[in-house]
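step: validate -> pass
step: tokenize input -> pass
step: predict -> running
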Amino acid sequence: MKPLEGIIVLDFAQYLAGPSAALRLADLGARVIKIERPQGGDNGRRLVFKNLISDNDGVLFHTINRNKESFCADLKNLDDLKIVKELIKKADIIIENFRPGIMEKLGLGYEDVKKINPKLIYATVSGYGLDGPWVKRPGQDLMLQSLSGLTLLNGSRDDLPTPVALAMADTYAGIHLVQGILSCLYSRFKTGVGARVAVSLLESILDLQFEFIATYINDNYTLPVRAKFNNAHVYLPAPYGIYQTKDNFLALAMGSVPLLGEILELSELSKYDNPASCFANRDEIKELIQSKLIQDSTENWLTKLKEVNYWASEVLNWKELIDRPGFKSLDMLINVGRPGHRDIITTRCPIRVDGEVYKSNKWAPALGEDTSKIMKEFNLCSQPIESSSKLAVESSSENNLVLPLAGVKVLDLCQFLAGPSAALRLADLGAEVLKVEQPSGDICRTLYSSNLIIDGDSTLFHVINRNKDAVSIDLKSDVGQLQIQKLVKNADVVLINFRPHVAKKLGIDYDSLKVINPSLVYGELTGFGHVGEWANEPGQDLLVQSISGMTMANGNRDKLPTPAGVSIADLISGQHLVQGVLAALHRKELFGKGALVQISMLESMMDLQFEGFTTFLNDGNEIPQRSKISNANFYTNAPYGIYKTKDWFITLAIAPIPLLGQLLNCPKLEEYSDPVTWSTKRDEIKAILADHLLTNNTQFWLDILQQHDIWCSNIYNWDMLLETDAFKNLEMLQEIKLQSGKTMTVLRCPISINGQRFYSDKPSPKIGQDNHKYLN
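step: predict -> pass
step: emit ->
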């Protein structure tokens, strides 16, 4: 049984962020009814890449709206509105991502619908929050990446600001929305009332960068500098990056530089024997490494590196990836298609529960396909709508909100980033998280970022392990085994991210622990799953990015494959783990049944790339080409990208090219009147734009374009962003007080419930500081 079976979701959302959240709920078993206007439906139906259309809808719509039903209603028509309100009475969840105020104008704001259904969980995605100076700006992904500082982390130092060529803000906000919904669904068992969950694209894209922003703030507001060569992370030392070989490319993750010198026969590297020198001299080191790697093939270098377990991988494009046994073993692909029309190949849900892969071949519905069926099933024509002040009174206790996961006990046996980030989110939502470490501690304590160490631990460790208690247990000892068994007996959730089979050797695998606690929710995170050629490879972020094809999407065509400058595989997989754990907790409350929730970083990375990857799969497996100029997405037409101006940079999202020509006084652009040319002559158009925008300042162009509602924005670094009223209005920063008495500034959880933002001043723990409390 899927964990969310029996839950009814009304999906009022459009485009990507909201619909992606509804899709995840559907994959986990919920019934999702998409509410669409009769005239045209969701605007996402007309969002088309490479002119790929099936049954009059874009392939992307089919991908993001599979496994749903469609119900047509004109919300401005009072009769239709009454019918929708009747449907709301039967629902558990509403998802909407209109601009703030639109649902209220329709009479469907949270204050309106909770009178109809006080148990409803009402979930909202906005661009920049529900109020503030940017509230009316379009919540467009490339603009959010530009405003948040993310584009200044990717690519090498001399490159333009480089976006991640995926809908990062949309996708991450959708992930956070699911987390908020599922945590409230769990708390509803105790309170009997619903809640309003709110996330914004800006808060989510800032949360994606939390480890970097915390380092920047606590390093005396010193802006990071991208490496001049092979940049892959602004705060990690050499050799971290992607390099060209004689025949292809090679990704090198964290590792000893002197050892790498021995493998490559580069004696010059022997002197870089501490992390500080490897960071301070990263460009010099990377240049030396590159000069050597270009002399031999990727395969030969990998053979030598793997002989000593040095963390490295090849760099694949999607065509190479899908032919590999390691990818095929994941069984990631599904076929969906409406009857009588072509099948569409796309990716499945990346979450497994009790070993079950969640596949559904239910197609994305045609507009209004299920209206008649739903009208009859719910008897929507005959029941008059009732207004109930009594219900409103009964639900008023929600203003004294208890954190939704209060009372949930979590054992965090994870290290590094992915697993601990999942435990942190559960802690922020109210769970009691106990970090279980070996006596030597989590390796992340010494994973330095920019050589910034506070109270003996790395900045990253402080940021990812705040709000937790800690015990140290020697799991290889008899005493340690008794201690962990006692803790497991009283836990609700265990999180683990060891390589496959290590947990079994330590006696902490799911089969062993469920004997002790049959209702345990066990969350396991691996790099590549349990089977296949990559099962025992290190699940390291840069290596997973490189294998997944993602690095081939970012940066301009003539550049090296360009990784995202944040630990994106770690963070996405950690957030997927939270989704699976929360869904399993819901099922546990219903049936008392535990669960094994499994996530792999590679599956999560493929899920993240579903838009572009699905286009590739349904375009004859033709490898997409990055733009030569201002690349920001494989498949999006000109002008989509970031351009240099006379004094800074400017982001241009989606706009008609002839109109841009008129507004910018650039007659050459007016010649491209056929929209087809905006794709076929993408680089030609971008080259004209790039030359023209250099003739004046960023603010000059913004003043012209924004008054005509053209989707554009400035590029912000963190110095600039922190000074804006829009950022200050979000109140994203919080202080934690370290045990030494020092304070440290970090970001808060990006989810709010009933207007409440979640703050905690509890710092990361010392090794074993809580042994006396838990192990006596």
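step: describe -> The radius of gyration is 26 Å.
step: cleanup -> pass
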